[in-house]
Structures are given as C-alpha cells and as structure tokens.
Specification:
6 copies of one chain form a homohexamer.
Chain A lengths: L5 E7 L4 H14 L4 E6 L4 E2 L5 H16 L6 E5 L6 H7 L4 E3 H12 L3 E7 L3 H11 L5 E7 L3 H6 L1 H19 L4 E3 L8 H8 L3 E2 L1 H14 L18 E2 L13
Parallel strand pairs in A: 1-2, 1-4, 4-5, 6-7, 6-8, 8-9
Helix pairs in contact in A: 1-9, 4-9, 7-8
GO molecular function (chains A, B, C, D, E, F): amino-acid racemase activity; hydantoin racemase activity
InterPro entries (chains A, B, C, D, E, F): Asp/Glu/hydantoin_racemase (IPR015942), Hydantoin_racemase-like (IPR052186), Iso_Racemase_Enz_sf (IPR053714)
Organism (chains A, B, C, D, E, F): Leptothoe spongobia TAU-MAC 1115
C-alpha cells in the first residue's frame, strides 16, 4: 500500500523570511516521505513576535495563509504561543496544529517534568499562559527566559546555543526539569546539539508539530464543527480584503 | 476642591455604530460629573464579535484607537472578552480596563456566586476562557448562552429582554446564581429592567468598566512597565500603517 | 447634573485610634468631591490584627459598626484580610468592600503579576488564604512578610518605608512581581514614596477600596439577598447587646 | 499496659443546650474506654449557626471554652464549618479537631466520592468553602442542602431522617456520591438509621472528630508553634474579659 | 529517501486474545507504510480490565512484554487507563505511549471540549483519574459510562454501537462535548460508524497512540533518564522470574 | 464497658523483613490496649520500593495479604505511596488505610503547612502524585528528597537521622514547613528524636495509620460498595493463584 500524499502548510508566525527558511529546513528533515511541506510567512505582521502586541498584529496575516490556501491537508502555526489557533480552527475543517501544544504533548510522553526555555524575559507571562491553555501547568517545572530576541536566535546560532545551554542547565539543576521544550520557532535545528550538551530530551516544537499534523491527516480527522469551531458567522468585516469575509470562504 | 477632568475613551470592539451609541448612552448615565466619556468604534474589523475569528480581526482596529489617541486618561475595551487587552496595556501606560473583568469584580463584591448570561451558544468557550483568565472560575455558577446574536441585542430590545430573563432565571434556579453579569456590550441599558424581573443584581459590564477606569485615574495609577507590559520592541511591522510601528508611539 | 452625596463608612478593623486617623487621611485624599468619608474603629477587639485570634475577636466589633449605622451608603472593611466580610454582606444590603479584595482587583488591572508585601512572618498563611478566597492566586507572584508589626507601621514610618522597600525589591527581582499590594491598612500613605523607590505601581488598599465603594454606590448596586447573603435568621444570640439580634436590624 | 486517661472537651458551636446533650450522647457512644468526654457550649453566641453572621458571633465564645480550660488533652469544635479553628490552634498547643475536617478525612478513607448533606439552602456557600479549605473539593460529589434549620434537626428527628434520606438518595443517584457526610452536629445519632436506608456509609462528624482527637492525643502530638499557629501576640483587646488577653493564657 | 522501518509493539492490557486481534486490525489500518506493528497480550493478568484490581494484576504482565522485547522501537499500552505507564518508562528508554493520553492529545487538537465514552459505570473514577493525570480535566466535558463490559464491546458490535451512540449523544447534547474519545481499546474499529452517527470527531485511542508512537520514533526521541524515569534500582524482587530483576535488563 | 478486640493487619509494602519488624515495633508502641497488631510482608515483590516499577511489582503481593486474610478488622498499607489502595478497597469491605494519606491528615490537623521528607531523589514525582491524590497539594510546603535509599533508612539509623535532620531543617527554613511528614515506612521510630532536633511536629506515617485504622473500626465503618469500590467482576485471571480469582473471595 502506498501512502497518499499529505500536504502540510507551515505558517511562520513572523514575517521574517530567514526564519521561514530555517523552519522549513527543520520540518523537511523530520517529515515522512509522503509528506509535502510548504513553509510560508504572512504578508502582514511584525518581523518577530515578542509581545502580545506583536502577536495580535500577526494573527490576521496568519489566518490569511489559511483562508487563501486551497490544497493543503493540514496547517501548522509555527510560533510558540500558537497565535490565533482557535480562529484558525474556525475557518477551516482541516487540522490545525500549534507548535507550542505539539511540543508539550511530546514532552509529556518523554518526561515527568519539563521546562520551556525561550526568548526575552518579557514573554514569561505569554509563555505561562500558553502552557496553562493546554492544561499542562502541573507538569511544567519552569519557564526559563533569556536575553535572546527572536531574531538573535536566527542570526547568531553559536551564542544562541550557549545561552540555551545555560538556561537549560538551570532548568534541569534548579527547577527539576527532565526534558526541555524550545519555546521559539527560531530555535529549530539546535535541538540535537542541545540534547548532547544537556543530557535530556530537547524538543523542537516545529518538528513536534509536523508529526502531529501528519498524525491527524493520517487518522483522517477534521476539526469539530459542532459548536465552538463552527465557521464564523457571515457579516461585514471592515477594512479587510474580501477573502476575509466568511461568505467567501472555501469550505 | 474641584476634581480634575478625567477623559475616558470607550472603544466598542465591534464596528457596528448603533452599538457605539448604545454603549455611550449607558456610560454617560453612570459617569461621575467630572468625567468625560468618548465612545468610538474601530475603523476596521467585524460588525460584531461572535467568534474567535471575529475577535482577532477586531483587535488591530481596537489597538489603533489607543495608538492614535492623544488626550484620554484611560481606555475601556467594550467587548465582553476584553479583546487584545494585554497588548493594549503594552502600548500605553494609561489604565486600560476590560468590561468583562470589570463586571466580574463588581459581581464578586455583590454576590457569592454569579452567572454570565450572553449571546450565541458558540461563544461558551470564549466566555469560559475569559472568566478563567480573571481567575474567578470558582465563583462562576454558570455561563448561560442564548440564541441571541450580538446584533439582535441591539435591534430587538423587547425580545432580548425576554430571552435574557429566561436565561437569567435558569441561572438563578438551576445553577445557583445570586447575581447576573450581562456578557455582551450590546446588552447595556437592559440591566435595570432585568434586575426588576430577576430579583438579583444585574451588572452592566460597560457601566462597571467606566467605574473601574474612573477609579484608576482617580488613584493616579498607570500600568506597570516593569516586564510583561513594557512597550513593544521596535521592529518592522509589515502591512500596517506607520502609526502601528512602535517607534512612532506617543508615550 | 450634580452628583448626590455618597457617604462611605470605613471601619478600621483594629481598635488602634492612630491607625484610624491615618486610614482616614488616605481615604480623604483620594475620594471624589461628592463623597463623604467617615472612618471609625470598633468599640471592642484587639489593638491590632496579627493572628487569626485577633481577627476573630475583632469581627463582632466590626459588624457592630454596620449594625448601628443608619446613614452610610457603603462600608469599607479596612483590615487586609477583609475580616467578617461575608457576615457584613448578610446584615446589610448596602455594598461592603474589603480592602484586600479591592487592592487585588486594582493590581490585576495594572500588572500581569503582583506581590503582597505585609507585616509579621506569622501572617503568611492568613494572607495567602485571603488571596485564594478572591481566586487570584495564579496572578500572585509572592507574599513577602517582614519583621514589622501592625503598630510598627504606624509608629516608625521611616523604618517601615525601608523595610517595605527591601521586601518590595525582593518581590520584584526574585519573584517576578510587576506591582506591589500593601498588605496592611497601617501602610496607607506610603504608596507614593514606595512607588518612586520601586519603580512599579504600589497599591494602597484603603484607597483602592474607597474607589470600589464609590463605584458600587454610583452604580446603585446592592448586595444580593438571593441566598448566601440573606439577612441572618432570627434567633437568640446570647451575651451580645440587643442590637446584634437579627430582629432588631434596620433594613 | 493500661492506657492513660485522655480527656477531650467537645465544644458545641451553638448555645443550644439540647444539641450539646445530643452531641455528648454520640461522642460517649464511640469513645474508647479510657477517654473522658466533656461536652460544653459557649456562654455567648447564637442558639444555632446558620449564616456567616452566626458563625462569627459564635467564635469568641467557642475560643473562651479553650482559654478557660485547664485539664483537657484535646478539643473538638462541634459545628460543621469548624468555626475559628485556626485561632483555636493559636491559643493552645493541645490538639484541636474540627468535625468538618474529621468527617471528610473519614469519608475519604471509605469512598471515592462523597456528598455533604446539610441544613438550610443558604449555607451552601459556607459548606463549599469548608470543603475547599480542607483541599478535598475534587473528591466531593455534591453539597445537598435542605429545608432543615439546625434546630429542626434536634426537635423533629423523624422528619429530619426523612429529609436526609431524600437528600442522601439524590446525592447518590444524581451526583454519584458513594458515602454521605452529615453536615451538622445536630444530625449526630441519625447515622445508623440513615446508613440502613441509603446503603452507603454515613458519617457522623462528631464521632469522626472524637476518633481524630483520640488519635492525636494517643500519638502525643501537639500543634506546631513554628509560625502560623504561634501564640497570639500580646496586646490590648478591648471589651473582652481579661482571660482573653494573650498575656493571661495558660500555656 | 526511504524511511527506516519503525517497529511498534502494541500491548493489549487484557489477556483476552480476540481483543488483541481487534486492536491489531485497527492499528494496521492506520499505520504508515514503513511501520511494522506487532500486537501482543500479557501472559498473566485478567481477561479484561474493569477495576483497579484488574488493572494492578495486569501490570506485571504488561511490563514483561517490554522487558522481554528486543527489537521494537516503541511501545503502546493498549488499555485506556495507561496501566503501569510510569514503570514502563523506567524500564526502557524507548518511547512508551498510552492510548488514553494519546487520544486526549488528539481530541484536544480537534475540539474545544470532548467527552470520554466508556464501559461499566464502576470505572468512572478510574477514567476521571486518568484524565486528571494528563492535566486535561478542564477540557473534558464529561465521562459517560455505560452498561457495557469490556468483553461486551468485543462480542456484540451492534449493541455496542447502539449503546455508544446513545452515550455519545448525551455527551454532546447535555454535556457540551464537541468530540468523543472512545475510552476502551475494545471499542477500536467503531469510530467511523460512530462519527457518522454522531456528527462529531470520534477518536479511537489505539489509532491515536500508533500515530504518537510513530511520531516519537520518527523524531528519534527517547524517554528522559534524568530522574523520575531512570532505570529501577537493582535489588531482589521475590517471586518474579529472573528477567524482572533490574540487573538483567537489556538496555 | 470493655472494648472489643480490634485486629489490624499492617502490610509492609516491601519484602524486606527487618523493615517489617521495625514497622511492627512502631505500631505496637502507639496502639490502644485492645488493639492487636499483626505486621506482615508480601510473599512476592521487591525488597524495597523506590520506583514506579518496584511499586507495581509489589502490589499483587500486597493484595494477596488481604485476600488470604480471614480475621483482621482493618488493613494498613505500610508503604508511603499507598500502593494499590484502590484495589485493596475493592477486594474487602473492611477499612483499608494508607500510611501516606493518614500522615497527611494528621499533619493537616497540626500545622498550616507541612513538608514530606523522604528517600531517593528519583521518588519526587511519585511522592508529589501521592500528595496530589489526597487533594492536599495546597497545604504541602515542599517535598524534600535525600540520598537515602529505603534500605539505608533501616541499616544506618544514625546517618538516617542526620540526613533527615538536614532535609527537615531546609524544609522548615527555606520552604516554610511547620511540620514534617516522614515519607517512608522505614523511617518509623525516628520521629521523636527528629522532633527534638527540628522543633516542629514530626509525623510517623505508620503510627498515624494505626490510629486511623483503629478509628474506622471503632466507628464500625466499612468501605462503600456502591460503585467504585465494588468487588471486582468475576473473570479469568491468568497466571495468578486461584485465590486471586474474584469468585473465590471471602466476603
């Protein structure tokens, strides 16, 4: 039996193209052979997401990548924080996977307690809220923030690796972490080196999400349209292109 | 001693103008004499917010009303769900109050248990998440959704009153509610009639938020810029007007 | 339109008169012009509340100040811990606000995480239970206790300021607090100096409660008499003056 | 080896003497042979506790029964709600057991889920808060309130039995209770008849607390004086007899 | 690139062979082409797991299937309840996936709220504890138990389908479920028919777990050996075959 | 009145006989005069329980000690973790008490916050799960693990005392513990010396459980057979002696 092709569109939440390339490289390296990966970035939104403001301005552009899509079988939201994921699940029946939730599920299957190691100190609250939203706060040993901006993680891989090693070691030694979740899509590709340095599983969220998306497609599952994730009601939406109007959605 | 003028800008989360007028009427009727209320609606976004999709598309327009503002002392986000409130707190140091949180604080001071009575059944999850975000889930007797769309609440006040009376009575009799929070800005102005019908306190969220905003201004408090709510980092934000760029913010 | 007069009675939970004066000064300085503030202390009870024992002995005297009152529009319980507040809400339909809950609501509108800085180390459990009762434990970065007794906070303002500065800085640097709630009525009046020293919002609980009380009166709200906060049943109450008997209550 | 005598003072929280007699009868029937039980009622306070107001007015009188005691080895607070128990633990090092907590511990050792069946509907919130304070909310199937006043439970045993049977059956059939905790000291003595009618364990809280008190004395344990339950600070306490002043405490 | 072979051993928790066959059929139908599935049952333990007693007696036999294994890349514990999963993670570094946790992760990616529909009424507490252990209780609309024994689910597929349809409909209509998790490995293979009848996603836990196991192997992840899931300490284990002794483990 | 004899069988969870003797000594020293204590160990299972693997292999042997028993009135599971306790409650109606739960109930009646001081670092997760299962996590100041194996606690009492003193002091000074629960049956007998060293109540779990078992027998209570703890269903159980088959149970 030959597997049908599974097309997954990964949407980098940031408009920074080098990160899209990096995300794509990571995803390509873990996909199953019959999976096709396309990685895109929004037309609109911030170069990088490092605040609630950035996140909210990114969401319309992220959703647009789903609205305009015609041939993907599943979508991955590639920004730790899973921005706009509930809306994404409303506008399509195809599976939508967030990299944050995916990485936490994987961590939960590998370790009794794990920590999230991530970017700037200011995102602590965002990250904690994301963990809380999945319901897995009791399994989270800590959130370790760093001095790394999102773009730093792309531009200086050596320094990034060092900062993540230090933060990971603190999480392991002081907080009791037994695995590490990388809390930013920009950190994709560093997981193997970090794993060697830290001696515990290190989870790349993009890779985790690709696996979850492949899984959902393979199981032939679609998002429940029963209540919460029904298609949005039809109504006037001012200042957005016509494809944002619910009556124009491909279903 | 004469009080200084306190200018509060209320931002209807919906782009539906009649609701702006209704919200304004409610707010004017409860404000202190030295308060000036201006009620606006976003330039962009959905006519009404009834899904996560609607909410996320509304947020950039809501934030713009804060970004472009020069003379208000505080802001009220007038959509139950407090859309984008964390971002609003990042882009200004002036107090920002959400009508959902404000109404829950008021309810908590009046009753041991309260219910939220609101619009379409599909918003149950959104409303529960909002209650959870304030931390007050343990005090919430129930969320009672109805067949009312947001625009229904504006257009047929008599039917709305009847539907809310029925839902409120169920909340009181079956769920143990001892007060009712109206879970939609469009329901503003019905609280007194409902209170007479139901025999328990009924809280108009817009009115509650006006009071909280007046309180914060009167206390001369500003949002903490210590960490989470710092100004957004400066960076390129594609596809948004230049006033959305953090380096152009009035501070 | 001229506002009606709003009369708020603030009940210092302690029988220490200098604290009553201090509380009154703070309250007068933040009230709206049409508000009248009267600050009283119980006839019976401990000089200061620093244990569960103190708190329980204070409550009958606190409640008496409500029972005997004829002309106030709202009551503020001015002891962090909100002693007897559920009973206070039973014996009157007029709004009753606790300074602890009020300060936490204000903190929640200004900061993602806050700490409570308070008196003697032994009150940690009392303070944590108070935060838990409001439901806001998840937003509380820490409770920082000190070597200050309640009366210390009144008698040596300079030393108090120094101790609070140290505790506040620890809360900010080690616990992630982004705002500070002063966890004792005796600390009223120090909030501005502390705010300058600490660089984050510092919330005086008395001031916060005055604003909440003004808000509830302005909204014309009364406590729900539906179930939990109904008037107490009529019955014999031994060893208390006749005004404590429910059948003698003014309603 | 002959056991030393263990003297337990049970303090009926209500000033109603017939209930004291009833409590005493229940306690005598379950005590070990070397235990001496003395059951008393406060000199001051309400005839019965059915509201927060009643509870707070009862506490000073309850505490007085501990303060004036010289020869008991342990104390039982015999009012479901364990009024003033934290203060009781401050003013003596001898073990203090509340009947509510004791009954929940016993229930937890007998059943996966249990319900509390209790008096007037208005006490629901009080009872839920008591369950929450022990931390056992997740094991509580429901709180079933009734039309029974506290005094009803004493005065009409047949009707009480019928009402409790009905409420217990509802808890079992509709809420999934597998055991029933009787949520009022006045219900002591009905547990065996109810157990026969309901077919599940029915726990008399007074009996449970006698066993816990015997246990703590037998283990030679005393309350921790490390921090929270230290003796109250010495200070002036207005309007209370001199034995209430901490400096006069027997230790 | 051709995928390496991934060998997954599925361990039916029950010793009932027809269920092993059924589980295997389901697993084979969803696996990726390069996955090899072997489904086994323990040599010892109960025919079916319907109580804590059954579960605990099943665990040594389940663990033996891992201990004696030499060539699998991952293990699936095929009994809803994930019996012994923490121990399984101690005795091998290869990924171990429980069907309960896997099904909940899948449900969480498809629906805002879901219910578990399962066997005999007596397992309610076991099922609730399993949901709690994953941390996802807040997303669980309800647990719906039925009159079906585990063996019933194998032996009468038509009746099983009818009972599950009824329970599923109740979960959807009365409890707000938007997806259904089948809470027993014996129900594998009914998910498509049920999905058509119920109109919401129905998740077969075995299929979900196969996907999770494939994912973990594909990501080249192993269980953290940092602390909790280290190999068991070497010591005498009485009454068990020598392969159960930790010093004989293949690593 | 002379008390009837109460026979309690204590089941050491470990197959290490010296620990059985130690447990028995502790139990004999706290029992009431009419109590008869028999302490046994399983025929099968690990010498000591220090991992989930050990725990699960111990449970069948522990349960066998209940199944084969004919004359005990209650059972105590003497391994902190209460292994298999739900199953134990299914197979007999006689009360079953776990030493972990018993020690936490006792601690809760003596202190506002307590810590568990226990063996190897790897058991932290097991201990935290046990505390969580009782529902008392909010009262737990910390879990302090040590370098002590279970057998160490038996074999070198002096070193054990020193290690526990150090860990206890850290719990008190750094975590805010006001009492200490000894988290291993092997630590029985050290509680008095530790109490003198630490200055806070130290609870021996075995002693606590003896008291709880005496209490339940004295109250004439049996485990609820309503639903969760019903006798196991009759079915084939492969590889276990015939007395393990439910149809052979004495009832």
């Amino acid at each position: 039996m030959s597997l049908p092709i599974c097309r997954i569109k990964i949407i980098n939440g940031n408009t920074c193209q080098p990160m899209t390339i990096n995300i794509n490289t990571s995803a390509q390296s873990v996909k199953f052979s019959n999976t096709e990966i396309v990685t895109v970035q929004p037309q609109t939104g911030p170069e990088s997401i490092e605040s609630f403001y950035d996140e909210y301005l990114a969401i319309p552009g992220i959703l647009e990548q789903i609205i305009l899509d015609t041939d993907s079988d599943a979508f991955v939201l590639a920004c730790w924080g899973d921005p706009g994921i509930e809306a994404a699940r409303e506008i399509t029946a195809k599976p939508v996977v967030g990299i944050a939730e995916a990485s936490l599920y994987v961590a939960n299957m590998l370790a009794a307690k794990w920590s999230v190691v991530t970017t700037l100190h200011r995102v602590r609250d965002m990250v904690e809220k994301t963990v809380e939203k999945t319901g897995l706060t009791a399994r989270c040993a800590s959130v370790r923030t760093t001095r790394l901006s999102v773009l730093d993680t792309e531009q200086d891989r050596t320094a990034t690796l060092d900062v993540l090693t230090e933060a990971g070691n603190l999480a392991i030694r002081e907080d009791g972490a037994e695995a590490i979740c990388l809390g930013c899509a920009g950190m994709s590709g560093l997981e193997q080196q970090l794993e060697q340095r830290l001696g515990v599983p290190v989870i790349d969220a993009v890779a985790a999400a690709v696996k979850m998306a492949e899984s959902l497609v393979s199981l032939d599952k679609t998002t429940s349209k029963r209540l919460t994730y029904r298609l949005p009601e039809r109504k006037e939406i001012k200042g957005y292109a016509s494809h944002y109007q619910a009556e124009n959605f491909c279903r």
